[in-house]
Design goal:
This protein is an alpha+beta fold. The chain has helices spanning 32-37, 135-187, 195-214, 226-234, 240-261, 271-287, and strands spanning 2-4, 7-11, 15-16, 21-28, 43-44, 58-69, 72-81, 85-87, 92-93, 99-101, 106-109.
């Protein structure tokens, strides 16, 4: 019996009770039976042998096995959680093999948080803080103080602020040019080339885009290092939407790696067009300006 501890990605990153979610688990194994299972692409695994002891905590909709490269595979668990906190799936034995997948716990988010910093915390009604008629005086004083502080700060940091403004504008112009060039290059790839050459061209264009956009050497990183590179480049400061978009780009890299290095592998009908369209959509998500929500 062979036990596998895969790399897990929960999509979306924050899952609430009743949401349909995916747990994507990537692993490497040279087992020949696995190759037979996915020789025609993605296959749905039977749930007959899968433990349902905690069925009240979640509802498993399906479990799929798909190729993700040379001797690399991805198990996708589609499920709906029915409780918050840590959710632990039992080990999954892949049919017709001696391989067992050991899942790591996943966290299900509560709609009502106990975190005092959370914008969803329910609070008691507050009593009026100001006496009637004093609001205008207080707001006027605050406005005057703000204007005074702005004048003082502009006098102190005027030079630095101008330089910062110019640098920001130059950087934004660079990002817009990088985005425009990348999308144009993806659409101009010769569709008559072999699948492996097409997949390599897509990866080269996307690696150059990511390296310029995030200032990290993605052109020298293999696919398995992309997520770590993203975390290093962004310090996990960007939104969940952008992180999910980057995860979808990594998924495209896994697919194109499979096309490049697997013998007799090829794109399905219209898959090239869908791949480019999906990458452009993820680029738009990464470039979209984030708007802070008021709490």
């Amino acid at each position: 019996m062979s036990t596998v501890l895969p790399q897990q990605i929960l999509v979306p990153k924050k899952v609430y009770i009743g949401d349909l979610a995916e747990l994507r688990c990537t692993f490497n194994n040279p087992n020949s039976e696995l190759k037979k299972l996915v020789e025609n692409g993605t296959t749905e695994l039977s749930l007959v042998s899968y433990s349902t002891d905690n069925q009240s905590d979640y509802d498993i909709k399906s479990i799929n096995l798909s190729p993700a490269g040379v001797d690399f595979y991805q198990v996708t668990v589609n499920f709906i959680p029915w409780k918050t906190g840590s959710l632990q799936f039992p080990p999954l034995k892949i049919e017709n093999t001696d391989i067992t997948i050991e899942f790591q716990p996943v966290q299900i988010v509560s709609l009502v948080s106990t975190d005092s910093n959370s914008p969803t915390t329910l609070r008691d009604s507050a009593a009026p803080l100001l006496l009637p008629g004093t609001a205008y005086k207080l707001y006027g004083s605050l406005a005057g103080l703000v204007v005074l502080l702005i004048v003082i700060l502009r006098i102190i940091i005027k030079r630095k602020s101008i330089l910062f403004y110019l640098d920001t504008k130059r950087l934004l112009r660079k990002y817009r040019k990088n985005k425009k060039h990348t999308i144009r290059s993806l659409n101009k790839i010769d569709t008559k080339t072999a699948d492996a050459v097409y997949a390599e061209s897509v990866q080269k264009i996307m690696r150059n885009y990511l390296e310029v956009r995030f200032g990290f050497p993605f052109t020298k990183s293999v696919t398995s290092e992309l997520m770590a590179g993203w975390q290093s480049a962004t310090n996990n400061l960007l939104s969940d939407t952008k992180e999910e978009a980057f995860g979808n780009i990594v998924a495209c890299f896994i697919r194109t790696d499979f096309i490049r290095y697997s013998k007799d592998a090829h794109f399905e009908k219209d898959e090239r067009t869908e791949l480019v369209s999906k990458l452009i959509d993820q680029i738009e998500q990464l470039e979209k300006e984030e708007v802070e929500k008021a709490i």
